[in-house]
Structure formats: C-alpha cells, structure tokens
C-alpha cells in the first residue's frame, strides 16, 4: 500500500504503524518492518525484477543457493566454501536487498570466514549496507577490510591513552578498536554490522575526527544490541566503551555527535532526515527494544541530542540517564568522565537510576 506523503504523520520508529519509504513515496504498513515488501514496488517494477533476477544468478554462480532467502532479512545458509565445517552448520549469514539489488554475506565458521558483497550489474541503485536509500550517493560500492583501510592493532601510546581513560584491553579487543598505520597516532573505531566492517571513524589525540567516506551511517556497537530489549545510546565511541566497562554490552553510540540545539520544526520524512539517517539505517534493531536509555552528554548539545533521539524513537519508551554531581554547581559530563573519576560501579548506578524521559522533560 503506497500513499502520498502526509506531513502530519509522525515518523517514529516506535510506532506500531511504521512509516516506510522508497522512491519518494511514503507507505504506511501495519507491520514491524521498516521496509516495503517487494509486491508493493510500483516504480520501474519490471526493471527491479530484471535486476533481482540478475543478482540472484550471480549469487548462485558463486555456489550460494538463495531460494529460501527473503529480501531484506538475514538468512543462515550453507556456505559453499566450507560446507558448514565439521558441525555442518548453516554458517553463512546472507542478506539480499530487493530494492537496492545487492547481496552481502559472511561465513561465521571460524576456520572459513568467507565474506563478500555483490551488486546487480545493470542496477542504477548505489550500494548501501542495509538497503536503505541514501540520497545523493553515486559512489560505487566499497568493500572495507582492515587491510585496505591500513588498520593495525593499537600500539603502546594508544594502549596507554585508553588505560588512562579506564578502557580495558578486553573491551578494546571485543570492539575491534584499532589504529591507522603510519607516523601519526590515529585511533580507528571500526563500525561493524553482523561482524562485517562497514565503516570507520578516526580520531587523533587532539580530538580531531573524521569518517571513512562513502559508507553508511550506522550506530557504533550495533552488533551488541541486535536482540537487546534494552538499548543504551551514548554520544561517542569512548563513552560506548565506558558503558561496556560498567557491565552493559547493550550500548551503542551515535556516529556523528550532537546537534547544537533541538530543531523546533516538525520531523521530516526519513529519506530527508540525513543527520539521523543512522537511526533509520538501524531500525531493525531499534524497533525491537522496549526500553531505550539516552545517556548523552550533560551539556546543552547532549540534551538536544537526547531530545532529537526521543522524538524519533518514541518518547514513551525512552529513559534519560543523569550524570552524578561533580560539586555543588556542576555534574560530570559523560560516561567516560564518570568512569574515570568515580569508577565503574558509579557509572553502573547512574545508568540504573535513569528516569522516564517524559518525566525528566515535562515541558
Ligand atoms: Zn564457510
């Protein structure tokens, strides 16, 4: 069912009636998916079918049998490389997009690890990692690897930097925190989805940030919240690692920090909501959660970010974390400050004392 865009429809990921979109149309479907099923595609339908058939053929030429695959879902298949290893498991995690005409896969058999992605030849769509259309994207798909990004394990300087910020070696390794090869000291926070490297954010010791170009915006730490009923959202990668130190692996960070202030205007349609595209790109994880804890920075931009997240995720399931007081006049700013100054127990306590967002923000 496709309907024209109506400005009055609230775009929240929490709604039972999820807003989905494609090709400039907005469709409202009473399902829990953000994506329109193939049958409702209207524009260039025949071309879509051609592309899909071509992609399917290419995938099958690689030995992957994708007859049982539902587009837009992750399916476990038999890996043609290792045949499922000793346990003969369906070790290949496979994802195919109908609309964007690409497929990607990774084998979770430890000894195999075969991974790849493929685009339908005559597709005009551009590659994204999850099938969500990104406006203005004309780049070819990029296959990211630690090798082609020239990433290497953390050296002593950065190990000491993280130790000072109370982030343990285990947490760094679990999150594949690396550094850029070369003379400069540059941290590399790797963004992954189903174990696959799909983006990277770099940071110097002087707090200069940049991101790998031509990649989709997603939440940092996404694989840790895949089936989480409660999700904690923080404002930076180091805060995500800090929250993990306090015993919460179900935490993600936004990829691009906080806005200066909360926008006064009504929410815009998802396809135009570029700054928050990471929410729409991660909708399949976020929409499953019954409770979302907003643990952004205590400053004004951090509170604006909490507000922007809450109005998109649905205020009724959002809770707000308030950071402990530093002295009579001020509070600690973020999760890492609390961890460094008060320790992991205090950070855990602050998170557990979150209050309902609507109660905290009555006006
Ligand atoms: Zn395999």
From TrEMBL:
Transmembrane segments: none
PANTHER family: T7-LIKE MITOCHONDRIAL DNA HELICASE, TOPRIM DOMAIN-CONTAINING PROTEIN
Pfam families: Toprim_4
Segments forming domain Toprim: 229-318
One GO molecular-function entry: 5'-3' DNA helicase activity
Protein name per the record: Toprim domain-containing protein
Entry superkingdom: Eukaryota
């Amino acid at each position: 069912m496709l309907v024209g865009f109506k400005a009055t429809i609230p775009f929240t990921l929490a709604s039972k009636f999820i807003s989905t979109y494609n090709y400039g149309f907005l469709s409202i479907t009473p399902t829990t998916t953000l994506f329109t099923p193939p049958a409702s595609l209207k524009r260039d339908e025949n071309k879509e079918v051609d592309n899909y058939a071509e992609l399917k053929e290419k995938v099958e030429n690689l030995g992957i049998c994708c007859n049982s695959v539902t587009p837009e879902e992750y399916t476990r298949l038999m890996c043609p490389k290792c045949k499922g290893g000793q346990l003969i498991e369906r070790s290949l995690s496979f994802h195919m997009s109908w609309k964007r005409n690409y497929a990607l896969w990774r084998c979770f058999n430890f000894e195999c690890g075969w991974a790849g992605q493929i685009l339908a030849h005559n597709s005009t769509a551009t590659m994204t990692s999850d099938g969500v259309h990104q406006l203005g994207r004309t780049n070819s798909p990029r296959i990211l690897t630690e090798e082609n990004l020239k990433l290497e394990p953390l050296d002593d300087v950065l190990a000491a930097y993280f130790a000072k910020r109370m982030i343990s070696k285990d947490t760094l390794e679990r999150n594949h925190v690396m550094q850029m090869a070369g003379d400069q000291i540059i941290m590399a926070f790797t963004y992954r989805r189903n174990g696959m490297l799909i983006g990277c954010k770099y940071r110097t010791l002087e707090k200069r940030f940049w991101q790998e170009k031509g990649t989709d915006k997603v939440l940092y730490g996404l694989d840790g919240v895949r089936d989480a009923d409660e999700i904690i959202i923080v404002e930076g990668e180091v805060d995500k690692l800090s929250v993990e130190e306090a015993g919460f692996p179900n935490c993600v960070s936004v990829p691009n920090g906080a806005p200066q202030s909360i926008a006064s205007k009504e929410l815009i349609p998802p396809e135009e909501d570029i700054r928050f595209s990471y929410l729409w790109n991660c909708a399949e994880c976020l929409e499953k959660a019954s409770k979302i804890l907003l643990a952004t920075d205590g400053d004004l931009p951090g509170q604006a970010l909490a507000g922007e997240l809450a109005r998109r995720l649905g205020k009724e399931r959002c809770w707000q974390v308030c950071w402990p007081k530093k002295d009579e006049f001020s509070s600690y700013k973020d999760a890492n400050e609390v961890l460094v100054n008060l320790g992991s127990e205090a950070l855990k306590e602050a998170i557990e004392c979150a209050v309902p967002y609507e109660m905290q923000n009555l006006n």
